[in-house]
Specification:
single chain; about 350 residues; Rossmann fold; Helicase, Ruva Protein, domain 3; DNA replication; ATP-binding; ATP binding; DNA_pol_III_sug/sutau_N
């Protein structure tokens, strides 16, 4: 998979310049390494990749941590046996845990006993807890003691997509780092790097389409690029068709019909979308992004690219809020519907009827 093969391996590989500078600064003083980090942000923004990079930096055989003469070399080399083992997931002192399946107090108590032992292969033991918000209250309480008085050779990295579920007592003992969604430019750099590595030849327009459809996720961008080149046809038309079935493209046409309160056109579009095998859930996620962009544009904070200026001018903030509320309710109901597209069709019909009744 492209995302795994081309994920950042060193600090230098991190596409976000501010994050790269921050991580370099935090790791520049071997005597004052933070004992706990809290990485929060959307999926696919580089939390786990960055955690592994920290593990490499702290255990690399060729940087300032290994050789005091290399005072200026903070980054991992990426080529020594230790760096390769961490990349392969075989380094004994880097432990990746899933908060969803290791969420109980007994799991954390076992971890507390384990951290007392010295590293086996490297200088530091790292515990990367993904989806940390899934830990139980009792598990967090058990972890708290270790975070308060951690062994010098241990670093914890908690990663979460729902920071608000992390207790304040835990957050106060971690260095918080927010992973914002990737910018359009960062996604293009990432996609072009993958394409160069794979020897792919795609048009600039194709990269732009995929970058926009990725909605700020490096992982989604790499996945969509891989899907786009699976067949022999890499034309704009073929890529657009692929994105439509993923709910990543074409929603602008639906949104335009909705904002015009054209129920027939909207339902017709949804019916055709269903026949193509499109995902209602992914389609709604795309609509949420577009509505968010529209609301920013209505407040003159961003330029809208999803609809024409004429449509934007005719759209009220009340329409944006009303449609968003209906889609939020619909999104929650979709997983319980035997016909996935039906709740969305009902929400669309209801939104258009509400407008007619007010007119």
């Amino acid at each position: 998979m492209y995302y795994r093969e081309y994920r950042p391996q060193t600090l230098q590989d991190i596409d976000n310049e501010k994050r790269k500078a921050l991580m370099t600064q935090l790791l520049s003083h071997p005597q004052h390494i933070p004992h706990a980090f809290l990485f929060s942000g959307s999926k696919g923004t580089g939390k786990t990749s960055t955690a592994r990079i920290i593990a490499k930096v702290l255990n690399c055989e060729r940087n300032m941590f290994a050789d005091k003469k290399s005072k200026q070399v903070v980054d991992a080399c990426g080529t020594c046996d230790t760096c390769k083992a961490i990349s392969a997931g075989s380094f004994l002192d880097v432990h990746e845990l899933d908060g969803a399946s290791n969420r109980g107090v007994d799991d954390v108590r076992a971890l507390r006993e384990e951290v007392k032992f010295a590293p086996v292969q490297g200088r530091y033991k790292l515990y990367i807890i993904d989806e940390a918000h899934m830990l139980t209250k009792e598990a967090f309480n058990a972890l708290l003691k270790t975070l308060e008085e951690p062994p010098r050779h241990v670093v914890f990295i908690l990663a979460t997509t729902e920071e608000e579920k992390i207790p304040d007592t835990i957050m106060s003992r971690c260095i918080p780092i927010t992973f914002n969604r990737a910018t359009h430019e960062e996604l293009l750099v990432s996609l072009e790097r993958i394409a160069k590595g794979e020897g792919l030849r795609l048009s600039k327009e194709a990269f732009l389409l995929i970058a926009k459809a990725a909605r700020g996720s490096f992982r989604d961008g790499a996945k969509l690029l891989e899907m786009a080149v699976q067949g022999t046809d890499n034309s704009i038309e073929a890529i657009t068709a692929m994105l439509e079935t993923q709910g990543k493209k074409g929603s602008t046409e639906l949104l335009t019909a909705l904002l015009a309160h054209d129920e027939k056109k909207a339902i017709t579009w949804l019916s055709a979308f269903e026949k193509r095998g499109g995902s209602a859930k992914l389609l709604m996620e795309s609509l949420f992004d577009e509505l968010h962009e529209l609301l920013l544009a209505k407040n003159e904070l961003e330029t809208a690219s999803v609809v024409s200026k004429a449509v934007l001018d005719k759209t009220s903030k009340a329409d944006i809020a009303g449609l968003t509320k209906k889609l939020i309710n619909c999104y929650a109901q979709t997983k319980y519907s035997p016909i996935e597209i039906l709740p969305l069709m009902i929400a669309v019909s209801s939104f258009c009827e509400d407008k007619k009744s007010r007119s």
